[in-house]
Write a structure and sequence with these properties.
CATH class of chain A: Mainly Alpha
CATH architecture of chain A: Orthogonal Bundle
CATH topology of chain A: MetI-like fold
CATH class of the largest domain in chain B: Mainly Alpha
Oligomer: heterodimer
Largest sheet of chain A: none
CATH superfamily of the largest domain in chain B: MetI-like
Structural class of chain B: mainly alpha
Structural class of chain A: mainly alpha
Distance between the termini of chain B: 20 Å
Number of domains of chain B: 2
Number of strands of chain B: 2
CATH superfamily of chain A: MetI-like
Number of helices of chain A: 12
Largest sheet of chain B: 2 strands, antiparallel
Order of helices and strands of chain A: HHHHHHHHHHHH
Order of helices and strands of chain B: HHEEHHHHHHHHHHHH
């Protein structure tokens, strides 16, 4: 009853959603159109929306122009996965501590963690470069993984903490009464209950790790075969001419695997955020 | 019932001495994360502060005291950069919040197909920022972008219009792209918060004859206020430090029109190898953002208390 809309309201809602989605999807549509255009099209005047010589040729040629393209796509996924895994190892215990335990300097240390959000890699680039050099990590996968982990730990703690706070305390108390140790309670009682939350936070961390590879890659890594996709794409700009159409094709194909994974996980994501993000 | 649970709690507390003390256990849990942050963030941060008092380049370092900061204080250009950065932040975050609120409301409406719409909103958030920017780079191009193309067809402009070549249009184009990147996450969090609002609140208001707009204003907004407030801060920090978008679109140009503090810092330190001057700028960023966040958190506390008191 309450959710019933008049015809006019329905039209209004759909119209508004359409405008919103056009804004969101326009760049993707434009990239797709660009990937179909032959190169000599680019400076043709007057501007044409559509022409007969559109083709999928770029999707074949791109693998030849940038032979390592497949590697770049995999590198991106590999780096993001490693960052996610390592970040979660640090985040899960810490988030539990902040959600449940009382200890000295609790608020201060939580504040410090959240303060890390204030620095992007760009602020700390020079000293970070020296730190990574000291540890001998430059020009390895680790040069892109380690900073990624550091800047995602705070977000992870923040998200997971609010999720863990929702799990009823009584279960832990019961386990405790039965003589379980603290670590056992965490592993066997809390974690299984937190699986939906872990998935959400894991996906959110993965997205963060996947989205922000560019800066660390261009600064800390010179080895071509280790580059992630966002950095590798710029190889289409080079040598003689810029093969824009292939660059667009490669960008779209490159993000496809993650988009597909994401499609499967998005239900959990929205549901999990619903459970976790709302403060009681 | 109440008695047994109280008894259990007492046992729980009584047994705390049995295993590890709570504070020791807690520090064991946060220790590894703390250590990691200390090495990868705190150490470089301390190093940045040290470097800011140096005249440092590829050749070496020399202590110069507050000279780098004094230069910044005297520089009119730097003052303009600070103003521009805050303008950039407030404009972009404001738009993200408004669009996020509208988007979440639309996606929360009970219409057929909303599952699909929710999925379609997310791509800008999920893909690498650099890749989204490549798409915008193309859109803003005067010769082959659809925006300039449409304007020519409609006769708004005679020739190709390069969005990124003029001071004003470059700045606002960068804002639009930043809003595009940031809106999906804000939308999603607002949507999640809206779904957490108890339905009976709406039903009670509906029975009392409250209009949709009234319900939105008096139920939805207050209920999701804590999320709005915390998203605002998070979004403000991201936007203030937004680097890749500006760097890929304009590299801070034309004529510094899109140079925010973070871009200025990168240019000084990385492009021009003036490590000392760059570090001083980085420290200014930390001070400004830190102050802003503290003021904001103070406000956040008040809001949480205010809205928290209504419940339970």
């Amino acid at each position: 009853m309450m959710d019933r809309y008049t015809k006019l309201q329905m039209v209004g809602i759909y119209a508004a959603i359409t405008i919103f989605l056009i804004f969101i999807l326009l760049p993707f549509f434009e990239m797709f159109m660009a990937s179909l255009r032959p190169l000599e099209h680019l400076f043709r005047s007057p501007y044409q929306f559509w022409s007969d010589d559109f083709s999928f040729q770029a999707y074949r040629d791109m693998w030849v122009t940038v032979p390592l393209l497949g590697r770049y796509i995999l590198n991106s996924i590999f780096i993001a996965s490693m960052v996610t895994g390592i970040t979660m190892v640090f985040v899960v215990p810490a988030a539990y501590a902040y959600a449940r335990l009382q200890f000295p300097f609790k608020n201060l240390t939580l504040g410090i963690f959240l303060g890390v959000n204030m620095f992007t890699g760009a602020v700390l680039l020079i000293p970070l470069y020296r730190v990574l050099r000291t540890m001998g990590l430059l020009n390895t996968y680790w040069a892109m993984i380690v900073p990624g982990v550091a800047f995602l730990i705070p977000t992870g703690i923040w998200l997971l903490r609010s999720y863990l706070e929702k799990i009823p305390r009584e279960l832990e108390e019961a386990a405790f009464v039965d003589g379980a140790s603290r670590m056992y309670t965490l592993r066997r009682v809390v974690l299984p209950l937190a699986v939906p939350g872990l998935i959400v936070v894991g996906v959110a961390v993965f997205i963060g790790a996947y989205a922000q590879q560019f800066l660390f890659a261009i600064t800390f890594n010179q080895q071509r075969e280790l580059q992630p996709l966002p950095a590798g794409l710029f190889e289409f700009i080079g040598y003689q001419d810029v093969t824009w159409n292939q660059m667009m094709a490669a960008a779209l194909v490159g993000v496809l695997p993650v988009m597909v994974i994401f499609l499967f996980l998005q239900k959990y994501l929205v549901a999990g955020l619903t459970a976790g993000a709302v403060k009681e | 019932m109440a008695d047994t649970s109280q008894a259990a709690t007492q046992t729980f507390e009584a047994r705390q001495g049995r295993t590890l003390p709570e504070s020791v256990f807690a520090w064991m849990l946060i220790g590894p994360a703390m250590l990691f942050i200390a090495v990868i963030v705190a150490w470089p941060l301390a190093e940045t502060v040290r470097l800011s008092f140096m005249e440092a380049d590829l050749g070496g370092e020399q202590y110069v005291g507050f000279a780098n900061y004094a230069d910044l204080m005297d520089s009119r250009k730097f003052h303009q950069t600070i103003v521009r950065t805050f303008y950039w932040m407030f404009l972009s975050v404001g738009l993200k919040l408004i669009l996020g609120l509208i988007g979440a409301t639309l996606l929360n409406a009970a219409v057929p197909g909303r599952g699909l719409f929710r999925v379609l909103v997310m791509p800008p958030w999920v893909i690498p920022i650099a890749i989204g920017c490549i798409g915008w780079l193309w859109l803003y191009n005067g010769y082959f972008g659809v925006l300039s193309g449409t304007m020519m067809q409609l006769g708004i402009t005679d020739g190709p219009f390069e969005f990124l070549a003029h001071k004003q249009s470059a700045f606002y184009s960068a804002v639009v792209t930043d809003v595009w990147v940031g809106t999906p996450m804000v939308t999603l969090f607002f949507l999640a918060a809206m779904q957490g609002v108890p339905r009976d609140l709406y039903e009670a208001a509906y029975v009392d004859g409250a209009s949709r707009w009234y319900r939105f204003r008096r139920i939805t907004i207050p209920q999701i206020m804590p999320v709005i407030v915390s998203m605002s801060l998070l979004s403000a920090i991201f936007t203030f430090n937004s680097f890749e978008i500006i760097w890929i679109l304009t590299e801070g140009g034309p004529r510094s029109a899109t140079t925010t503090l973070i871009v200025d810092t990168y240019k000084t330190a990385i492009s021009n190898f003036k490590f000392g001057e760059g570090s001083a700028r980085a420290v200014v960023i930390v001070i400004l953002l830190g102050t802003f966040s503290l003021i904001y958190l103070f406000f956040l506390n008040k809001v949480n208390k205010y809205y928290g008191s209504g419940k339970k």
